[in-house]
Amino acid sequence: xxxxxxxxxxxxxxxxxxxxxxxxxxxxxxxxxxxxxxxxxxxxxxxxxxxxxxxxxxxxxxxxxxxxxxxxxxxxxxxxxxxxxxxxxxxxxxxxxxxxxxxxxxxxxxxxxxxxxxxxxxxxxxxxxxxxxxxxxxxxxxxxxxxxxxxxxxxxxxxxxxxxxxxxxxx
Length: 171
Prior knowledge:
By secondary structure, this protein is an alpha/beta fold. The protein is 44% helix and 14% strand. Strand 1 (14-18), helix 2 and strand 2 form a beta-alpha-beta unit. Helix 2 crosses helix 5 (120-132). The model is unreliable at 1-8 (pLDDT under 50).
């Protein structure tokens, strides 16, 4: 339980996880984290489970056109993957100005993501940092938005697409 001083600064979080039911997504790690953070609410999008578990709500598969509401109604996105490239869910979280806690380290995003590795306690530490330090969370969000604007505008993506197509037809 939290002391009275801790309670005054403690805020319950709505934590979003989006992914498919695949061992590489490491959902078991998320369950461990949710078990420790019982006062927070976890929303899991992408898994077709019928029953919720304690503070975990399974939202099922959601059409991409409706997923924005989950980003807008959450306090942070967590990614527990063991391995992958830069996931679209992280880029989408940036778009909605949502802090991201990730198990994976992305060299281009060191200033934009709260990195915790594959260790439950370190991920929880990063979640609690977001909970207690809005200034740090906002700094990372601003850097994430700058990253998006620098690398993922429609114009930038189009340039990369044209470059890729044209390089296939050289020679």
